[in-house]
Specification:
Layout: H1 17-24, H2 36-42, E1 53-55, E2 58-59, E3 62-65, E4 73-77, E5 83-87, H3 100-109, E6 113-117, E7 139-144, H4 147-157, H5 159-162, E8 165-171, H6 176-180, H7 186-198, H8 218-225, H9 240-247, E9 255-261, H10 284-302, E10 307-312, H11 322-333
Parallel strand pairs: 5-6, 5-7, 7-8, 8-9, 9-10
Antiparallel strand pairs: 1-2, 3-4, 4-6
Helix pairs in contact: 3-11, 7-8, 9-10
Length: 346
């Protein structure tokens, strides 16, 4: 998902996507509790007495428009001033991860709302958008996968609005470039995308084989796949100085970085490590885990000492470690925020 809307929703505008979501809380419709048993199981907000979950994979809340575009729709559980805004990764939309359901319940008990929202890059739209295109107090940004780079980009380009962000959680930051490098046609497709951009065709679509999952423009493909592209923020081959240049501004905001360790299903960080430099007794899998653990430490250091949380045996979306994921998020959310953050729309 990409966090930037259009030229009319610039970073300096008070009508940005962010202000639209934060202000959306004031127009919430109070909903009556029609299922007391479900409310008891799913928590209860202080106003309506109804919990955020009515049944499995059924959320109670308010859906509202936060901008003029058809896709600019958000869904909020609870009616609290403090909010956690979830930002998904590529192909994500509403209900992107399994831990959102128990997270909504846990947040409600602490008088926090959970907000999920759609932008032009949601679902299959990521290929024709960019980080630039989608342009309160108590707001915590929670990014999953590629949603992590959306947060980093937003916090760098929206200085005024970023003061409303109390903290940021980066869950499973990824290097799409290193993953794409394992595919056989990526190098030639990067060359094609570069040529198209140089010819002024950055908005034209790449051949279908470049990205079978969804249509993708040459600009977006280059951003995701090329070295030092706009989306290339978490790659393992960057030096400490390069990572600090990309992530150093996050040091002004309390951050937590989620690291899934010992995960055989985590394949997003491609670790091209020569076995000549490691004892032969170490398996390739062990080398990958060691390298990834080291990389997360580098990312935290580049962000000025962000907190690292390790969840053992978790997969990329933490669908197999839902309880641990919610515990880690809630522990961070419940801490006292830094002094000086505010709501720039007050």
């Amino acid at each position: 998902m990409d966090l930037s809307t259009s030229a009319s929703f610039s970073s300096s505008s008070s009508s940005s996507w962010f202000s639209g979501i934060v202000r959306g809380r004031s127009s919430s419709v109070k909903m009556a509790n029609k299922n007391p048993a479900a409310a008891a199981a799913g928590g209860a907000d202080s106003v309506s007495g109804a919990g955020p979950i009515t049944a499995k994979k059924q959320f109670r809340g308010v859906m509202f428009k936060y901008g003029p575009k058809a896709i600019q729709v958000a869904f909020k559980t609870g009616d609290y001033k403090q909010q956690v805004i979830f930002i998904g990764g590529l192909t994500d939309g509403f209900l992107a991860t399994d831990y959102l359901e128990p997270l909504a319940i846990a947040l409600d008990k602490e008088k926090w709302s959970l907000v999920q929202f759609l932008v032009s890059s949601s679902y299959s739209g990521y290929g024709t958008s960019s980080l630039r295109q989608e342009d309160s107090e108590g707001v915590v940004l929670l990014g999953h996968s590629t949603g992590c780079q959306d947060i980093v980009y937003y916090m760098r380009t929206n200085a005024a609005c970023s003061r409303a962000v109390r903290a940021a959680i980066l869950q499973a930051p990824v290097s799409d470039r290193e993953y794409k490098a394992t595919l056989p046609d990526t190098a030639s497709m990067i060359d094609l995308a570069s040529n198209m951009i140089s010819e002024g065709r950055e908005s034209e679509l790449m051949p279908r084989e470049a990205n079978p999952d969804a249509p993708i423009t040459s600009f977006r493909y280059h951003s995701l796949c090329a070295y030092n592209g706009e989306d290339d923020l978490f790659s393992s081959d960057f030096s400490d100085d390069q990572l600090k240049q990309k992530l150093g501004h996050m040091s002004n905001t309390p951050c937590q970085v989620g690291d899934q360790v010992h995960s055989s299903s985590e394949s997003y960080f491609v670790l091209l490590v020569s076995t000549l430099f490691f004892p032969w007794v170490m398996s390739t899998f062990q080398i990958m885990l060691t390298r990834k653990h080291w990389l997360i430490g580098k990312l935290c250091k580049a962000m000025g000492g962000a907190e690292k949380v390790e969840i053992e045996y978790g997969n990329h979306s933490l669908s197999n470690r839902v309880v641990e994921a919610v515990e880690a998020i809630m522990s961070f959310v419940k801490r006292e925020g830094p002094s000086g953050w505010d709501d720039p729309w007050n």
